[in-house]
Amino acid sequence: MVIRILLVMVFSGFILSAAIADVPPPHLSLMPLPASVQLGDGQLLITQKFTVGIAGYKEARLERAGRRFLENLSRRTGLPVGLDVGDPGKATLVIDADHASRAVQELDEDESYTLEVTSRGAKLNAQNPLGILRGLQTFLQLVAITPDGFAAPALKIEDRPRFPWRGLMIDVGRHFMPLDVLKRNLDGMEAVKMNVFHWHLSENQGFRMESKRFPKLHEMGSEGLFYTQEEARELIEYARDRGIRVVPEFDVPGHTTSWFAGYPELASAPGPYAVERRWGVFDAEMDPTKEETYRFLDRFIGEMAELFPDAYFHIGGDEVKGKQWDANREIQKFMREHGFTTHRELQEYFNARIEKILTKHHKRMVGWDEVLSPSLPKDIVIQSWRGQKSLAEAAKQGYRGLLSFGYYLDLMHSASQHYGVDPLSDEARMLTPEEQKSILGGEACMWTEYATPENIDSRIWPRTAVVAERLWSPQDVQDVDAMYERVEAISLELDELGLRHLSSEKRMLRRMAGTVEIAPLLVLANVVEPLKEYQREEEATKAGITLSRDAALNRLVDAVPPESETARRFARAVHRLLAGDLRGGATEAEIRASLEVWRDNDALLQPLLQRSYLLKELIPLSHKLAGLAEAGLQALNYRDKGELAPADWTAAQSAFIEEAKKPQADLLLMILPSVYSLVESVSAPDSQGPKPAPQPGSTP
Amino acid sequence: MVIRILLVMVFSGFILSAAIADVPPPHLSLMPLPASVQLGDGQLLITQKFTVGIAGYKEARLERAGRRFLENLSRRTGLPVGLDVGDPGKATLVIDADHASRAVQELDEDESYTLEVTSRGAKLNAQNPLGILRGLQTFLQLVAITPDGFAAPALKIEDRPRFPWRGLMIDVGRHFMPLDVLKRNLDGMEAVKMNVFHWHLSENQGFRMESKRFPKLHEMGSEGLFYTQEEARELIEYARDRGIRVVPEFDVPGHTTSWFAGYPELASAPGPYAVERRWGVFDAEMDPTKEETYRFLDRFIGEMAELFPDAYFHIGGDEVKGKQWDANREIQKFMREHGFTTHRELQEYFNARIEKILTKHHKRMVGWDEVLSPSLPKDIVIQSWRGQKSLAEAAKQGYRGLLSFGYYLDLMHSASQHYGVDPLSDEARMLTPEEQKSILGGEACMWTEYATPENIDSRIWPRTAVVAERLWSPQDVQDVDAMYERVEAISLELDELGLRHLSSEKRMLRRMAGTVEIAPLLVLANVVEPLKEYQREEEATKAGITLSRDAALNRLVDAVPPESETARRFARAVHRLLAGDLRGGATEAEIRASLEVWRDNDALLQPLLQRSYLLKELIPLSHKLAGLAEAGLQALNYRDKGELAPADWTAAQSAFIEEAKKPQADLLLMILPSVYSLVESVSAPDSQGPKPAPQPGSTP
Hints:
The structure is a homodimer. By secondary structure, the first copy, chain A, is an alpha/beta fold. The first copy, chain A, has 27 helices and 21 strands. In chain A, strands 1, 2, 3, 4, 5, 6, 7, 8 and 9 form a nine-stranded mixed beta sheet that branches. In chain A, α23 runs antiparallel to α24 and α24 packs antiparallel against α25. Chains A and B meet through α3, β8, α18 and α19 of A and α3, β8, α18 and α19 of B.
């Protein structure tokens, strides 16, 4: 048997045609890509007789993992695979861990594994159950339909993560997410080998964890939407089974309006307070000068430290404006007495006190950029929403850090944009190897102003899989086209697991339309994306609208995925055409066909838009799509004739495109840059012509 | 305000154009249709300020129902509706029940309600909480998107069921269904006002309920797949909250192999026994001659009678072959001693003994047709899989009955076929009004040889909604076209509730194809239906295949819905065309477009079929679809020229159609009868021509 040694590059799109010879390599839809893969000959057929056996170290969690694996295998294949995990002697897949992992999962635990698949069976070895969990996910992703049945290709994988902290944060403060939403997202995390669930549990808009010591926190701070401690334990257990740590965040001293609903005495200004319903940054801040504040936090953190076993505890610490502090005489007096001249110094004092409380309860502090200060011990972790520069500065001071800048899922960036963000790029690249070790990894962050249990999966997935790959796979895994191909396969796997990123859009569209016949609405939905970054807020401000939890998230902007696959493919086709693609005829026909559909769609769609309150706002958008398509078709006509377009035509198109760039219904028409390119390609260089290429949002 | 009094007829398709005047009546997508509807003027806008208040009788179940209603309303609209059920004074919807329902839901309880909606609010009145539950579902179905927002039309509904027993049976013996599958199906039942969940808990292939007295029943009879008693209580509670009774079935004395795995001493032939994996009718039968059998059943039924609060208890009693009885000398001796000459007499003896045991435990017996015998008391209930004749005979003897003949969901009949089955039709029509009262209603039955947790929803829904309407709505609600229109809306509602009948097919197709790009596969999938009745078994027998639980249910036949909506619409278009539709041109263009897609699809689909083990069997089917489409197109060409086709063409098409009728991959091509009609329409009456119209399956 000839083992062909292939590099990770093969899977990221680089084709070694000579080495592959007659049989093409199996298409490995792995995400994250493993550190190393050696392809073998043949494949392991998966039948209903497939079994899993445990050799070596045994524990109940491993058995549950084996059973869950078999359930997932059955779901992937539709085969009635037996679910008992048994005797390693006869098993198709033998899992073999050397020893137990720690009682509470720790940051530095080994997650490496070796997976060997031959046509006769498979062996999965790891130091401890964490590596087994990771390897089982790899095996599942290897299983594909072939002409002979479901099979995994013969190969040997040696794999380990690049970073030890690969997290997903979900903000359950702004919109509460029921436990089943979190569970299915933990399933998704497991599938892509993420290992930290950062549970953002308190916000101005909601305090979501039951406190037995201070029951008014959840009773008055949650509008009835909170997790019981029993549920928290259930989730922690669920996460542990999947090799995922749970790091709770209770954000202090700002973002605390919901705390003050029940305990106004903690605030820096007199109450009463009510749970905030608007979005934004607010004034409510804890009073860092009162000893009562620390007594309260000591008891509260003590209670939570017992509930959450993880060694790390997130105290937020972001966006403290200091407005209440300025307005409070006692606080001003305190600052003078302590020689503090800035809010920052007062917050540093607060953080240092909190840090001592955490240490007392055997927890290490995690906080956002703002908590960084030389007065704190070196074992705290800085989570950076500001960027690699901020991380690098912390590292140079000896602090460990996590990158979240560039991984904010709510900003609606494309998968390729997230993929391009690396914790060790930019300023962090200049760090010494020793300093680089203090960059622990990163976290994708899901803030939920515009996410509900209904659409949150489509905001998190599949883009988080791309972040997971960035944090797990070797740094040189960078091929964007190959990434998009693999994302498609992983997206299906996540759908099989119960995530709703693929299914929620249609359900929402049908609701908007009030009918099952939504084909023309889908045509429009497929080429738009939600506004990027904070443009939705900017549009609201312009329109004089106060954004809040009272606004329904049932519009098209809430239903469509953050990235338009249709527009991405169209952009690639246009790019090929303009780059002089050899298959020019076929490519142009493809482009023309798309443009014709978009041009003709408006007439089909308008009756639907007219009769629905939720669709009316799309009337001009649908017109504009038709107009853009018409412009593109005319440009193609000029190309076909080998002519440049007249200057007045170019000017008119340019003006139209400029107009179409404006956000409409909080959406962007993502085919616009490609149409612009087509128009530009037939415009005289000296014509007044199009302005610099418009780039709405994120289409690469 | 002018109230226009409209009859139920209006909603079933009969148009009163004069009465409706300028404003068209709102399209009421109600299923089942209420007994009476009076439309008013205007509509009630649904906003996030919508509230529910309880006047009159209060209980926790009503509050939970109100909250669940608000959750569903929020899901239907996407509006962030508050979930607290509060003060009736200020509520948008006031629910008002006169008094409690019984502690355990009973057969004869009142389920009527009155719902009045005006532009200012809504009132829902009922005698007891059951009527409130029914009315809340009606209100939910009234909510639709309009140009002004979500709204319910102003109207007054007075509603009550036609039959008191409207059930769904699910066989969890052949394929185990996890609790969440059952729960979402109970949600579906609630939505269409069904009130009995018949839980078929034991079969040759599995004993699914934990028994504490006889633990070997579930331990050795279930392969680990059973419900704990705790789970049973949870489900009963869940059902009660939805106004649904739970009737357990433990099928005796046949269908009992799984009992004998742990207790072979109950059998009529020596063991050992193992849980049956094949499908079919088997020999294993309890020994009705031994007192030990009755002691066992007394203790077992006693245990179950305590667990299941419902007054009725189903003992199955079907398909006893008597083979083991014939082979057992002791049993033969017993029969001689008792003067029994037939198996039937012995089973009557057994049933009479069981009936006494049930009575002792305060339960009334339900059994399939076979249990009917004058020796049993008149309070037992006969469930008929044989038909109205059988029911009518029972009624004449004073027995009450349920119809399930014509409601077997696993036989893959169309919605219209189920819709056409009425418990009081045929022989039952001739009963006296008093005798008719003993026909309590009916049950849709889901036997699960070919249903798994993955595809069962698509076998049950939406067709069960049609059975629910037949059992609830007035007998004269019969318009099939209107039914199909309303089914579409209800299907979306069921999807919103979490049922997977709409989503499972695509997931399964993607799995078969190993890719997300399944458009050509969908084209084929959309025009086929699974074989009807017991043809799948017949095909297997022909092929020498033993059908069993070991066969994977991951083929196209397992994924496609029982009824092809595409073929149904195509058949209607062809029918319009041949009937000389005034819009002939448009209709023909529509037909031509479909035929061209089907003709051209084969070339697109073949590469996909070649590379998947699960799709290979479709290669000839796809060819045949193309051939049928070509025949249809050629027939249209003759029509357009105003010519009759030559006799040899007709003969060739006829032969091809005959060939295409043969089942392939356990599927039928449902456009075949329509293509046949097109071919026939251009064939000379005297040509050898097509044979009598082929009618695969169920297309009307």
